[in-house]
Write a structure and sequence with these properties.
This protein is of the alpha/beta class. The protein has helices at about 15-30, 70-80, 100-110, 125-130; strands spanning about 1-5, 35-40, 55-60, 85-90, 115-120.
């Protein structure tokens, strides 16, 4: 399955980069063709129409469960058709509001027409390996 891991994680964080690497490795081991795109750097070139499955990886906002990155709804609305595509919301744990933040991200994905079939709060890079096996 052609899969996109759309990352909103920080490039300068070792933890975030290990999580991304483990997610990708586990999904590839399962037999998927995986592309990893950084939402901030690749926002002009992302075309979601090419992918059968879209995994959105976002760090939780430690102070609020409602404030999602401004790029997320913009990319979902303008980067091609996502209506009817399967996807998952993967939230990197930070602070007390990770679950509420996950619900907010899933609602935004579903509002654009995506079918969210999996969600998870990622605790650490080792947990990301387990989560990556469930992508797709």
């Amino acid at each position: 399955m052609r899969t996109l891991i759309l990352s909103f994680l920080k490039k300068d964080s070792d933890k975030h980069q290990k999580i991304l690497k483990n997610l990708e490795a586990a999904a590839v081991a399962k037999g998927h063709i995986v592309d990893v795109k950084d939402a901030k750097l690749d926002k002009e070139t992302i075309r979601l129409s090419f992918y059968e499955y879209i995994a959105i990886v976002v760090p939780a906002n430690p102070f609020s469960g409602k404030k999602i990155p401004a790029l997320l709804p913009e990319i979902l609305a303008t980067a091609g058709s996502v209506s009817g595509k399967k996807g998952c919301a993967l939230i990197v744990r930070s602070g007390l509001f990770s679950q509420k933040f996950c619900n907010t991200v899933m609602k935004k994905m579903e509002k654009e027409g995506m079918l969210v079939d999996y969600f998870e709060i990622i605790r650490n890079p080792d947990h990301a390996t387990y989560v990556g096996k469930k992508i797709g």
